[in-house]
Write a structure and sequence with these properties.
The protein folds into two domains: 158 residues, Rossmann fold; 76 residues, Alpha-Beta Plaits. The chain is of the alpha/beta class. It is 29% helix and 25% strand. Strand 13 and strand 14 form a beta hairpin.
Length: 248
């Protein structure tokens, strides 16, 4: 316990905020009877794993954990997860999300949609009223490489005049997803981002689009870690609980 406290005090305020949000989400949504649990790939997720591990061997020995990078051909397509915990690049006031900053949004969406309960953990910088307010890079769109020119043209015609392939930082060429596809970042005007469900469907109709980093009507609750160490819980019914303290 002393080691855990020491490690916590050495973390930055942002990391402590993420940790508090993740701990609260796990405490509220991962129950003793939950046996199949989805684990996302956001920067807050390792803290959720830490909290799950702290439940002990007896609690976890019969559980099956499905990460978004899981390679098995038998994934979970015929099974329903009890709960999925993941991060987000941005969360609006209606619990719509932008995900895909790490170009993993196809697998993240599969895991999220396969769960009875999908909750998000993030720090306070990810909370906004309208998507695109905080995450300004644009909507992540995974596309088939062969169709890249066609998709970019269609996205620009739709309203994302600055849509562009995401380029790799450590090598020449575009980012390649875990599925062998390209990723486009497509900024849209605020007027279109105010209805993310409609925008999602418009983008999905473009031939060559594999998946879109807009997650709508999926998230049950979002847990935001605040700079002062407290958390804020935003629920699907519009209610919000603030200044909640979490034992780290």
């Amino acid at each position: 316990m002393a080691t855990s406290t020491k490690n916590a005090t050495e973390k930055s305020p942002i990391e402590l905020a993420k940790r508090a949000a993740a701990f609260a989400a796990v405490d509220a949504h991962i129950r003793p009877g939950d046996k199949v649990i989805g684990i996302g790939s956001g920067s807050t997720v390792p803290y959720a794993v830490e909290r799950i591990a702290a439940m002990g061997k007896a609690a976890n020995e019969n559980r099956f954990f499905v990460p978004t990078g899981f390679q098995s051909q038998n994934l979970i397509l015929d099974a329903e997860l009890d709960v999925t915990v993941d991060g987000a690049d941005e969360v609006d006031s209606d619990l719509n999300l932008i995900k895909g900053g790490g170009a993993c949004h196809l697998r993240e969406k599969v895991i999220a949609e396969s769960a009875k309960t999908f909750v998000v953990v993030a720090d306070f910088r990810k909370e906004s009223k309208v998507l695109g307010e905080k995450y300004t890079k644009g909507v992540p769109v995974e596309i088939v490489p062969f169709a890249s020119a066609r998709v970019l043209s269609a996205l620009r015609a739709l309203g994302s005049t600055k849509a562009a392939l995401r380029m790799a930082k450590e090598k020449a060429g575009p980012v390649v997803t875990d599925n062998g596809n390209f990723c486009v970042d497509a900024p849209f005007p605020e007027s279109m981002m105010r209805d993310p469900s409609a925008l999602l469907h418009q983008i999905k109709f473009i031939t060559g689009v594999v998946e879109v980093g807009l997650f709508t009507n999926m998230c049950e609750a979002a847990y935001f870690g605040n700079e002062d160490g407290t958390i804020t819980i935003q629920s699907l019914d519009g209610s919000k609980e603030a200044n909640i303290k979490v034992d780290l």
